Amino acid sequence: MGDYMKNKVCFEDLFPDNRREGETTLRQAQFVMLRMLKVIDYICRKHGIQYWLCSGTLLGAVRHKGFIPWDDDLDISMLREDYERFLEVAEAELPDDMMLQTRKTDPHYHYLPLPCKIRDRKSFTLSPGYEDEACEKGLFVDIFPTDRYHTNRWIFGVEKLLKRYNRFICKCLDSIYFTHESPIRKILAHFYPLFHFLVKRYQKFVRKFINRNQGGTDCFIGAGWDTPWIRYIRYEELMPLSEMAFEDGMFYVPRNAGLYLETIYGADYMTPPPEDQRSRHASVLKPIL
User: Among 113, 117, 112, 108, which residue's Cα sits nearest to residue 135?
Assistant: First the structure.
């Protein structure tokens, strides 16, 4: 242990915490998340772990060369085998002001559809509906596992049906956080224990698929079996990864980033939405405590 601590990287020297340099609260929060991304990137390169910018973060890289100006989160994806490897090394590698948040490392974190975050310990963020949750609530980077899906159309059809079932029960599960939105949400929230049970049973059931189909390149890559997202891309459109500028760093992105974004956002992804549709995720954002 002594030798390990002696050789442990000083991330404060490599990537100084510059959150106070942000001219707005949102920009301060983006600086926090950018530093976390740099730390994650360093750990992944050190251990030969592949990741890529995804969702709005990838869109920001392509369209804005950094964060979408109004965005308050950061997303990356990993192939399942890289994700599992990252979970093995991250706790020991992360600096003291960050934490690996899973249902194992944070007993109060029990959001089933999203299994992993990296949290900053010196900030606070809150999304609507999470006011009573006791889990760690610092600013975060979401890490999404991805899995391989078959190219045979019949097998792939069954896989998509299973994923759509999971998406449905996860949306029902989430109703407890959005009871203010509609009477239906309020009714579904009363059945939270049932949907929680169904999601856990589903995740236990699909472990066999996660473990069975983790090799090879003749496949689709899609959001993990244990997550509700249902977009897919051919392996050869994703790999090998390339690098792209994001803010002041270079990070990994899909080989065909344009097709990846079109799959998620449609062909017009380079056109920003109207100002009244530029929403944030957090209801409370405190990058400096």
Answer: 108
Give, in degrees to the nearest 5, the angle at Cα 108 between 107 and 111: 105
Q: What is the 3-state secondary structure (H, E, C) of the chain?
A: CHHHHHHCCCHHHHCCCCHHHCCCHHHHHHHHHHHHHHHHHHHHHHHCCCCEECHHHHHHHHHHCCCCCCCCCCEEEEEHHHHHHHHHHHHHHCCCCEEEECCCCCCCCCCCCCCCEEEECCCEEECCCCCCCCCCCCCEEEEEEEEEECCCHHHHHHHHHHHHHHHHHHHHHHHHHCCCCCHHHHHHHCCHHHHHHHHHHHHHHHHHHHHHCCCCCCCEEEECCCCCCCCEEEHHHHCCCEEEEECCEEEEECCCHHHHHHHHHCCCCCCCCCHHHCCCCCCEEECCC
Query: pTM for this one?
Result: 0.92
pLDDT score, position 29:
97
pLDDT for 3 beyond 50: no
